[in-house]
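Need tokens for this chain, all 231 residues.
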Amino acid sequence: MNNPVMMHKRAYDLTDQLILRVDRLLGRLVPAREVSGRPTPSAPSSEASTAESATANEKPLTAGERQHIAGLMRINHAGEVAAQGLYHGQASVARQPAIRDSLLQSAREEGDHLAWCAERLHSLNSHTSYLNPAWYGGSFALGALVGLCGDKWSLGFVVETERQVEAHLDEHLALLPAHDVKSRAILEQIKQDEAHHAATAAHAGGEELPTIIKRAMTLCARLMTRSAYYV
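Here are the structure tokens for all 231 residues:
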């Protein structure tokens, strides 16, 4: 027999939602809690031919290369922290349940990216950005502000954000040493996911953002990337 109490669906008030947001923040900032729902793209493939090919192309990295790669991956990790903040902020004020669910699904996939970048940084004996709390908090506030403008504008913000991220990933792929197959595999999968997020948001009715907003987004992204590379 079903228990009526167990069947009751809890309604979350503002305090409950704040606690959930803080828990998500901790999950994004504490490396031990960064767990991917999908295998890391750089992990050895179950197919021998693919694994052998990756191993054959892999060469030892110099100290300078490791430092440079760590800087690039730290930027990408910080970007994923910011993406979590944006999606959570937008989802918290989304008007349509379907759009809210779509935003949260994208956030979960960004969480995979976050874990993959953190894992790569760990393998390089490096650290994530010390500014991550600022990236998440500022992005959450920005996401909520954009979301309050309406779902179509919120989706348009997703489209433009992901387009800029794709361009940024192309730059990083070009900057990686050719023999760093592990980082390359991670960034290529992330780029594929970001393109899917942009296409999904556009299909759902995202509005094209004004040029001035796009330029402001580009400037903010430059500030984050230049800071996260070192800090």
